[in-house]
Specification:
The protein is α/β, with parallel strands linked by helices and 371 residues long. It is built from 13 helices and 14 strands. The strands form three sheets. The chain has an eight-stranded mixed sheet with strand order 2-9-8-7-6-3-4-5, with helices on both faces. Strands 10-11-14-13 form a four-stranded antiparallel sheet. Strands 1-12 form a two-stranded parallel sheet. Helix 8 links the parallel strand 6 and strand 7. Helix 4 (65-72) packs parallel to helix 10 and helix 11 (270-294) packs parallel to helix 13 (354-368). Bound molecules: pyridoxal-5'-phosphate (PLP). The site of pyridoxal-5'-phosphate has 13 residues, from helix 5.
């Protein structure tokens, strides 16, 4: 099966371990194990005791009842039995696409966004049309363009809300229009929802609460800041959950006892986790904004309190060559925009720890002065 290389991952796999100032990532500064296990103020005592007594068998195949119950609480209308645990949101997207997309299917994918959402359907033999996001429309795609792309045989529309790399959140009203269009031809709408706005989360609407044929994928990797446990999920109606179960048995079995226990612990303390992460995002967003305001060669459509941003550079140099030199000469890592097919830009992961962000931006400013 042919598949394109994953632009961002291939960049990070080569360069991320050589960065001194990594301002490329899209996760809110990850929590340490100590921080996670101290969320209940017990320093992990009851958690480790529970773990000690736990048989290391496969555990709950689809995720424990506690996990499903906690995840279902994140939505208005999802039954716990329709939550399926996956290996991160990557696993959730793959499961949904692998289960539903066949050769010759028509798929419309927001572009650019998370590359899985267009290159997996392509690799499965689908005809994929891009629905472009536009910088001059605050990185929104145009609803009229979707109307022009939709076909009676469109099988699925794929979105990433909020979007990686831009951090733009699609409003409820906009998603409702997408749903109307999808409904008119019976298409599924898959939305990767790993980036929740940490300020005014009420502005976020999950596709599964808007559309019966919606598929929400998510994980604890970004907004919840613990990618290390590799836990994600799909949230769907019953019919889709049953289809996914069939394919899931072939691809993952389970996420593991330890990961499930950690995920439940984090979800039960989600208010604390989100409060911690909101503080980081809002604080760092102001630093990013001040920096961009002071940099004549940089502009940005500010993200909506989600943990990724996409800055634009006004420089007379190839973006990737610029990012490689920046890393080699200043130790600062970005993701060049050409990895999202958007040269002239770069993903700037501003939600790292404050000291790294400040020093990274200082060095980036120094580097920009060469022009
Ligand atoms: C939109 C999107 N979905 C999924 C992922 C990966 O998520 P996970 O770590 O849960 O597999 C990323 C990581 O960059 C992402 O940006």
């Amino acid at each position: 099966m042919e598949i394109a290389g994953f632009g961002v991952e291939e960049w990070l796999n080569v360069w991320e371990k050589s960065a001194t100032y990594d301002i490329a990532q899209s996760t809110v500064s990850s929590m340490t194990m100590h921080e996670v296990l101290n969320l209940d103020g017990e320093n992990g005592q009851s958690f480790y005791q529970m773990l000690d007594e736990q048989k290391m068998n496969y555990g709950w195949i689809e995720g424990s009842p506690e996990f499903k119950e906690e995840v279902a609480k994140l939505y208005d209308h999802v039954a716990p039995e329709n939550i399926l645990q996956t290996n991160g949101a990557t696993g959730a997207n793959h499961l949904a696409l692998y289960s539903l997309i066949e050769p010759g299917d028509h798929v419309i994918s927001e572009y650019p966004s998370y590359q899985q959402l267009y290159d997996i359907p392509k690799s499965l033999g689908a005809e994929v049309d891009f629905w472009h996001i536009k910088e001059d429309a605050d990185w929104y795609p145009d609803i009229d363009e979707l109307k022009a792309l939709i076909r009676p045989d469109t099988k699925m529309i794929c979105l990433n809300n909020a979007n990686n790399p831009t951090g733009t959140l699609l409003s409820r009203e906009f998603l409702e229009q997408v749903v109307e269009i999808a409904k008119s031809v019976g298409a599924y709408v898959l939305v990767d929802e790993v980036y929740l706005p940490l300020d005014h989360p009420e502005n976020f609407a999950s596709i599964i609460d808007l559309y019966d044929k919606g598929i929400a994928t998510n994980s604890l990797s970004k907004t919840y800041s613990i990618p290390g446990i590799r836990v994600g999920w799909t949230a769907t109606n019953t019919e889709l959950a049953d289809i996914f179960r069939k394919y899931r048995d072939y691809t993952m079995i389970c996420a593991g006892i330890f990961n499930d226990l950690m995920a439940v612990h984090v979800l039960r303390h989600k208010d604390q986790v989100l409060a911690r992460n909101k503080k980081i995002v809002l604080n760092n967003l102001q630093i990013l904004k001040d920096w961009v305001d002071s940099e004549p060669r940089v502009s940005v459509v500010l993200p909506q309190a989600v943990s990724t941003s996409f800055v634009k550079f006004d420089i007379p140099e190839d973006t990737e060559a610029f990012c490689v030199r920046l890393l080699q000469e200043e130790g600062v890592l970005l993701v060049p925009g050409n990895r999202f097919d958007m040269p002239g830009h770069a993903r700037l992961g501003y939600c790292t720890d404050e000291a790294t962000l400040r020093e990274g931006l200082k060095r980036l400013s120094k580097f920009l002065k060469q022009y």
